[in-house]
Specification:
The structure is a homodimer.
Chain A lengths: L1 H11 L3 E4 L9 H11 L3 H19 L5 E5 L1 H4 L2 H17 L3 E8 L3 H12 L2 E3 L2 E3 L6 E4 L5 H14 L2 E7 L6 H4 L9 H13 L3 E2 L2 E2 L1 E5 L7 H7 L5 E3 L9 H4 L10 E5 L1 H4 L15 H23 L3
Parallel strand pairs in A: 1-2, 1-12, 2-3, 3-6, 6-7, 7-10, 10-11, 11-12
Antiparallel strand pairs in A: 4-5, 8-9
Helix pairs in contact in A: 2-3, 3-5, 3-13, 6-7
Chain lengths: ~300, ~300
Amino acid sequence: MIEKLVQAIKDKGTCIVVGLDPQLSLVPESLKKAASEDRGDSLLAVSDSFLRFNLAIIDAVAELVPAVKLQIAMYERFGTPGLEAYRVTAGYARSKGLIVIGDVKRNDIGSSAEGYADGHLGRVRFGHTWLTGFDTDMCTVNPYLGSDGIEPFTKVCRENGRGIFVLVKTSNPSSGEFQDLKLASGEMLCERVAAKVSEWGSSLMHGKWSDVGAVVGATYPEFGQKMRQLMPHTFILVPGYGAQGGKGDDLIPLFDSEGEGVLVNSSRGIIGAWKQEEYKKYGEDHFDEAAREAVLSMKEDIDNALRKSGKM
Amino acid sequence: MIEKLVQAIKDKGTCIVVGLDPQLSLVPESLKKAASEDRGDSLLAVSDSFLRFNLAIIDAVAELVPAVKLQIAMYERFGTPGLEAYRVTAGYARSKGLIVIGDVKRNDIGSSAEGYADGHLGRVRFGHTWLTGFDTDMCTVNPYLGSDGIEPFTKVCRENGRGIFVLVKTSNPSSGEFQDLKLASGEMLCERVAAKVSEWGSSLMHGKWSDVGAVVGATYPEFGQKMRQLMPHTFILVPGYGAQGGKGDDLIPLFDSEGEGVLVNSSRGIIGAWKQEEYKKYGEDHFDEAAREAVLSMKEDIDNALRKSGKM
């Protein structure tokens, strides 16, 4: 999978990932009203309004970016109809040539982790038929349970040509509570996790990079250099840009010397652009064009930072 | 929620939780065949076969136990139809007076954790209507992101009378890889997490116990006493009994001096009893009776251990 991602980044000329994390407050009233008229005030109506929203955004950004990331919590909030919007959005994005990252942060003991790996990245057999659950290209995974919660995912990555990103240092304010704890050995917990991620990925290399990636938040730029050192062959998915406070310059230490190895996600900053002062001129009817404009502006910010650093 | 759980344990005279974690290999052929005839070899057929299986087990054990635990990965493997079986199973169990624990191990940054908390324990508003996603009583939560990934769950617990169990020391073989790491302060990571769980629960006390519980695996009995000490008011959900190797005697240190504060889960040992030599006489047609018998045998094991320890 990772070689496909690297190629897509080259083709599109940017490492931006659009986060399709719909919230009712970000979906224009007209879409909600139309869905409500069709379906009543039901979970199905929410699901419909998310689909109308997402598909328009995908159409607007598909030629600009290599990938989209879907925060499944935003769909799971609305039960199985919400998750059906997740599944259909993922399928539509893949049909447009985009790589789809399921931001699911799943993990469990081995036998249960197998269930998640099958459902999100793999396939299952019933009777004489192979079936797929959510069928995304890559997904995020939580490391707290250690290797035997990760192996079912790497197994499916190998068999089915998929990839994962393991949480190492997350973007939220309290991420340091456990992740930054100093171990008796002198390292921080997230550094130990980073070393493990590098080890887990060593048997899934394709050229320079591994199918096992990592998540490192843009909101902690001081961790960037160390993280890149500890995981020299690990692609890094970076949340926290934009609405959470991360900027282009903050990302630089995570790129390798050739300006590779990073995917930068922005969600609210792009899909909610139409609500921001800067993009107000588009109005709620043209939320998709506002999103497109926000992608271009983000690309400029990251390109400028890369050029300034000499990595581009 | 916790006071309801404590009362249910008293009423039923046991702290056993039946793990409704269906796998195709545990579902009798006759149920799969019937579902396949109705629905073809599809995800809907899997969902149907899981429902036929689960509802029969619930009918067989509802009068014996206070709660059931649903491992959502086993449903998520089969996409949205699988998750619909999860939702319907949860609703049926609640209608039979059982407390339903969603073993979802979710977590994320605050805004996304809100989505999970709403979907599993809370409710959402669309238009003029309040809607629920999965509507379970309690769920498991992963701590790796720290306090601001937990707060959305405790908020919903408070507002909606629900509860959570935070992963502290999991039952799997590699749980020690990160959870047992020694910190510079001298404690192990899981001990630090335990102390935090106790702190998070302090504002959600109902009598002796908090709505914020913990998960501690039965497979590491040497951790029991320390965990109980660090979390004196924390109800402990214990996986790993039975198929994973844990026995009644291993649980004793987790109970308080009055024999309270523990919920013990068994999944394969109960729902897959019909496939074990010991319960072979029931045959695949009476898998539900085999499950009932396995619950009674597990109750005897735990009661004996409690009596021997003087805690009962």
